[in-house]
Amino acid sequence: MLYSQEQINEINRQKEIQELETQAENDPDTLVVQLPEGREVLIGQYADDFVNGYKSATDFIKGRLNHYNGNLNKLADEMNYSGIAPNPNHFDFVLDLCNYGDDLLELIKDSYDCETLTSYLGIEERA
């Protein structure tokens, strides 16, 4: 049986939703991060199994820095440390990187629009 492109797209979408639901069950703390360019990425223990996933907050920061070819100023701007020209708050970004230390996930939550994958999918967390 041949499927139309629309049917193939729907099958792929359903498969992706099922994979995301499995991820949410296995790691309910997986974070969905909304990037400025309109993409969403995942940060979680097993999220690196996804094309748009990172295993840790450190991997996410490295990935975003690579996206900007190592330009820390552009990453700082993306994370809302742009300030008012000609005095951007990039130094504050460096300080926060140091101050958040081992809890970079909190820095990400403070800088991006985020929610847990369970919330994103509308799945009630099981106690």
Describe the structure.
- The chain is α+β, with helices and mostly antiparallel strands.
- It is 50% helix and 11% strand.
- The protein has helices spanning 5-26, 57-67, 72-78, 90-100, 104-111, 117-121; strands at 31-34, 40-43, 53-54, 113-116.
- A four-stranded mixed sheet has the order 3-2-1-4.
- A hairpin with a 5-residue loop joins strand 1 (31-34) and strand 2 (40-43).
- The mean pLDDT is 88.
Entry keywords:
127 residues, alpha+beta, 4-stranded mixed sheet, 4 strands, elongated
Protein topology:
Layout: H1 5-26, E1 31-34, E2 40-43, E3 53-54, H2 57-67, H3 72-78, H4 90-100, H5 104-111, E4 113-116, H6 117-121
Parallel strand pairs: 2-3
Antiparallel strand pairs: 1-2, 1-4
In terms of per-residue confidence, which ranges show pLDDT below 50 for 5 or more consecutive residues? none
**Backbone structural class:** alpha+beta
- Major sheet, described briefly? 4 strands, mixed
Strand order of the largest sheet: 3-2-1-4
Backbone CA Rg = 17 Å
